[in-house]
Amino acid sequence: METRTINDIEMEVVYQKPETLTETQMHYCPGCGHGTIHKILMEVIDDMGIQDRTVGVAPVGCSVFAYNYMNIDMQEAAHGRAGAAATGVKRVLPDKYVFSYQGDGDLAAIGTGETIHTVNRGENILMLFINNAIYGMTGGQMAPTSILGQITSTTPFGRDAAAIGYPLKITELVAHLPGAYFVTRQSVHTAAAVRKLKKAIEMSFRYQDRKKGTCFIEIVSNCPSGWKMTPLQANEWLVKNMFPLYPIGDIKVPKEI
Amino acid sequence: MENGTPKLMKGNEALAESAIRAGMQAYFGYPITPQSEVIEYLTAEVPKRHGVVLQAESEVAAINMVFGAAGAGARVMTTSSSPGISLMQEGISYIAAAELPCLLVNVQRGGPGLGTIQPAQGDYFQAVKGGGHGDYHMIVLAPASVQEMSDFVFDGFKLAEQYRTPVMILTDGALGQMMEKVILKPEGSLPYPEKPWATTGKPKSRERNFITTLHMESESMEEVNNRLQEKYKEIQKEVRYQLIGDKDADVLLVAFGLTARICSKAAEMAREKGINAAVLRPITLYPYPYTAVAEHAKNAAGVLTVEMNAGQMVEDVRLAVNGATPVHFKGRTGGMIPSPEEILVEIEAIANHTIHA
Questions:
Q1: ipTM
Q2: What is the reported pLDDT for A1?
């Protein structure tokens, strides 16, 4: 009797991982937004055919190993300094596409100065800011973007504004700077949101050709492990608790089309 | 500016002009006295000639811009003075770990703290023993004239690229501010080496380049350390020093930078008084000329180390001499510069056996 295996059936490829994602298995926790964001970013680089003209800068935080997954030239910067390192890269390679990929602690706490001044100089780079309101890598401590009342390992009774201040809306802050060219806030909690993010990333790379200023994309993301929730619960918590403070949508769009 | 003809220039300006001539492709810095002439000179000249110049928002940002640009393959420099160099230490550790070539300049001022804007040599430990975290070194060059403030820029870039390491020119506010005759090397005399490791965008023809200092497995972190230590062994052959005077002097002075110049005047005055004194001037502070110091100290009656600090390099002198000869120390701090006369007093005391180490 003839037996047929799945390998004998000719199948049409309807979906595959982007070529510029390496084969390395990601270390991210189940349900974490980083994997999706990495994939979308690499898809854009594939679609635009700019692998040979792109240099990325990874942060210190959960995405510290981004360079293991992205098959492009990358640098791993000191904590908070990705904006400065990306400035250094872009200034000596002005015709390359340069992006920094940073978490909330990296970009909005220890690297606040670098972030503000990178955007204020209008560096022609894309800053990708992944905001999950917690320090994931070090085990769930309070982030500058943790919301009021949020329980973390360093705010065990909930974030109290009187004791430790308010969540920092750094995206709104940088949007005020003349050096900011395109500022938007996106998310990856639904397929529709992922598609919108992809468009924003693609536009940000295209805008780099114009040399008009910094593109800044905040991605409101989750941290199931740090929040101590299932991935589904985490996405629900994100919609309920983060979106009111960090509303999705464009904050500053280029005037010329 | 004409080539080959002597010019009268400030140390800081000679250094800045030499960086352009040495093919510097990017400069990132932050103003701080007594080295602000460097960034002022470069922000005026670089746009007219070639390269990138950028005033950063802080020394922390500046050193990380150096990291990024050096990683992207550019010939990069930053300059600062003591408190600013302290701020850069984390970045320097990363640069050493990532093996990125670059030139750092510390125009030292007196400390600790905000200190003074007057010259000092208080950052010797920080520069040669690794001011940042972890086991690393950088090549440290100590100029003693405006001419060397110029020449060492070329040497510094060359050594940095040859060994893929940060190189520091450790100078001081006096050398930075004073004007002297200097002959500048012509532009284009320092070729650019290939940097196949640089992050310039991955073509299909090669694997991706990534620059990282993170090694989570202890075995691989130790491997990185072993490689660095091998490199530092190799770097030992770059030892440079200058002997001013007799090689069998009775009193051997050991001093670097500005202090070495003052010591040579003091040694000259001593010789006029019939005391055979000589000066050994380490030019590379890392690698340190331990062998030369030991050799020249061996038959001397005493060694005198003079520094504009409370006694830092003297520890390396003692390591070199290893008890064979008494080692004495004369230091001034806080921006005070020792005079030849006060050094002469020490030389005479050693020669007359009136002081003991």
A1: 0.96
A2: 59
